[in-house]
Amino acid sequence: MQSKIVIIGSGFAGVWSAFSAQRLIKLRHQEETVEVIVIAPEPSLVIRPRLYEANASALAHPVGPLLENAGIKFIQGTVDAIHSDEHTVDARSASGVISSISYDRLILAAGSTVLRPQKIQGLEQYGFDVDSLDSAVKLESHLEHLASLQPSPARDTIVVCGGGFTGIELASELPGRLGHMKNLRVVLVENADEIGPVLGPGPRPVILEALESLGVEIKLGSAVTEVSVEGITLASGEYIETKTAVWTAGVRATALTQQIPAVKDALSRLHVDQDLRVPSSKHIFATGDAAHVLADNKDHCAFMSCQHAMLLGRVSGYNAAADLLNESTLPYSQAAYGCCLDLGAWGAVITQGWEREVKVTGATAKRVKTYINQELIYPPSDAETAIAMADPVTYPDGGVLFEQILTTVM
Asked: d(Cα 406, Cα 410) in Å, to the nearest integer?
């Protein structure tokens, strides 16, 4: 009977986990003894880093044929439950049929979701977001519909709630997307006293310059307390008329982490060792946004980002397969870190290192961001290349990758 590696999720970490596991299995000629299975709602990779852009419906990249050609089985469904003691998961099909699927090694790569605080009245009913393909498509449809409404402060004002990475990229993008609206007002609301609090002070002057150039208003130290169909209310009592409040403030790891008896961090990520294994459940690996793991020996943890997910996936897949094949596992390490932030028509800003030292800005940085978003993060078109690219050992670190990208776009 074949052993099974079951991977939950077809995001960046899930897809690269599958290719990496299958790569090692093929190298050892063990295709008849170990099967790789991916479970996800759709046979597609949602290009989540681009969901702030226009044409969101085009950002689901099909991977079904690619997985099949690589010898990886795809099961379309949503995992409702993980039974770690029984080594099974319950998968629900689109028609509602629940199947029990057994595994020998499980890789949890189900990503994360935006956190909508229940204490904010009306947020669930009236707030938009760009966290998933469906929600990004919903927002885009709403934005297109605005043009058919009578001009008013509520129609012409877009409020982005959250001045972190996603909020800044979305707020920077909107003036270009909605340039046909004569009285457009884009407001970026952030609870902290600085824009991009997690991004640090390095790129902040560049971000502020870009937002000012684009005409984006910034309200700092402003917590949202209520969202309605016609506006939002801030903790200060200020009311902003808007029919479009977009929530980007904070994410949490998949709720499936709560079904695994293990330590979690404040973002609900599972604490894992450097092999990405859950210490209390040796047959379970967590990767991508579901994993809390050190990226280096200086206490820097991997971020919830595709940059980290693409290597985390490669390592988790390799280690799950190595574990079954009685081979040495590979410790995860990603010491180099780079950040590329889109700033709309103004350009972009690129930083290097955990201290986020600014390296490139403006139009050149925009070319880098465009290359990353439109080419680099997509999987290849053929299975043989995908298998070859899944090697975690040869995957370039951030510094080398940055130099390769600059050489490509310059």
From this structure: 6
Cβ-contact 59, 133 below 8 angstroms: yes
Domain over 3-113+252-335 is classified CATH 3.20.20.70: no
Bridge pairing between strands 338-342 and 291-292? unpaired
Domain with CATH 3.50.50.60 in the chain: 3-113+252-335, 123-195+204-249
User: In this predicted model, what pLDDT tens digit does every residue of 157-199 receive, in sequence order?
Assistant: 999 999 999 999 999 999 999 999 999 999 999 999 999 999 9
Furthest C-alpha separation in the chain: 67
Helix (H) or strand (E) holding 161: strand 157-161
CB atoms within 10 A of CB 141: 11
Q: Are 62 and 76 in contact (CB under 8 A)?
A: no
> Looking at the domain that runs over 123-195+204-249, which CATH code has it been given?
3.50.50.60
| Burial of residue 44 (number of CB atoms within 10 Å: 0-12, 13-18, 19+) | middle
